[in-house]
Specification:
The protein has a single domain, classed as Double-stranded beta-helix (4-Layer Sandwich). By secondary structure, it is α+β, with helices and mostly antiparallel strands. The chain has helices at residues 27-40, 52-60, 140-145, 149-155, 164-173, 183-188, 223-237, and strands at 4-7, 14-17, 42-45, 81-85, 88-89, 92-93, 116-123, 126-127, 130-131, 135-139, 159-162, 192-195, 197-199, 206-208, 215-218, 243-246, 253-257, 261-265, 276-282. It has a seven-stranded mixed β-sheet with strand order 1-2-3-17-7-19-4, with helices on one face. A three-stranded antiparallel β-sheet has the order 16-10-18. A three-stranded antiparallel β-sheet has the order 12-11-15.
């Protein structure tokens, strides 16, 4: 199958043109897409019309899928699909409504974080014909490479605590009165520890694996020292030269590698402007 691969930015991202994801892909075509995924970390497929089962089937070509711990937002017929949406059903949110308010890596708060994610845009909010709810992606590989040698040496053996509860605490502090975890969800997602610097499991390139949404603290230092160093790393990771800003269109499918990237959703929309998307998540392997 003939298709092209066009870079989206200098640091990460590529658009795959000429592929219909609703159709079966031969092994040679899929292998080329998978190679592009490893090379560019973020892939964009425009103008896709995917049913829920087709999205699950395509994502599963890359590996086993996760069922998200926040199961109240999972698709009723396909639990492998997490609904990302600000749409309401009465007084109930049908999906994760904040859509990633802070820079984060999906499921970094789990003992075995996810390998990657795929988001299919079904409804995109607009204003005066322009899309809202952009998503920013940043390359934590490029960010690590640009660190000074002194800072690389300082963080080489550091470990950090990651917590879904930390994310919810931040949401509450920022005034979100609906942010809450059930006891069962807290038990399924206790605090975990990962190394701050991780090698990519395929490319071997080193990445900065801390994020403002889910990294609670660094081990082996005071709270003040931990906060100061984390803030330095968070600010560095979010520098514009490492990022790609995606403007959504209905029918977009974007997939990203959760190890060498982080992402952030821009929340510049509100009901009656509707945002509704389906996310599938690749199960990962234990980090280094």
């Amino acid at each position: 199958m003939a298709f092209s691969i066009e870079p989206l930015s200098d640091s990460l991202g590529a658009e795959i043109r000429g592929i219909d994801l609703s159709q079966p892909l031969d092994n040679k075509t899929f292998a080329r897409i998978e190679d592009a995924f490893h090379a560019h970390s973020v892939l964009l497929f425009r103008d896709q019309s995917l049913s829920a089962d087709q999205q699950v089937a395509f994502t599963r070509r890359f590996g086993d899928l996760e069922v998200h711990v926040l199961d109240q937002y999972n698709h009723p017929d396909f639990p492998e699909i997490l609904i990302v949406s600000n749409v309401m059903d009465g007084d109930r949110h049908v999906g994760i409504y904040d859509a990633g308010k802070y820079w984060h890596t999906d499921l970094s708060y789990m003992k075995v974080p996810s390998r990657g994610s795929m988001l299919h845009a079904i409804e995109v909010p607009t204003e005066n014909g322009e899309p809202l709810g952009d998503t920013l992606f940043t390359s934590t590989t490029a960010a690590y490479d640009a660190l000074s040698d002194d800072l690389k040496e300082r963080i080489e053996t550091l470990e950090a605590v990651y917590s879904l509860g930390h994310r919810f605490s931040r949401l509450v502090e920022d005034g979100d009165t609906d942010a809450a975890m059930t006891e069962a969800q807290q038990e399924r997602a206790p605090e975990v520890v990962h190394r701050v610097v991780q090698p990519h499991p395929v490319t071997g390139r080193r990445v900065l694996y801390v994020n403002e949404g889910q990294t609670a603290r660094l081990l082996g230092m005071s709270d003040a020292e931990s906060r100061d160093l984390l803030d330095t790393l968070f600010g560095h990771i979010a520098r514009p030269e490492y990022t790609y800003r995606h403007k959504w269109r209905e029918g977009d499918v974007v997939m990203w590698d959760n190890i060498p990237t982080q992402h952030l959703a821009i929340q510049d929309y509100a009901l009656p402007q509707r945002r509704y998307m389906h996310r599938t998540t690749l199960r990962g392997k234990a980090l280094a």
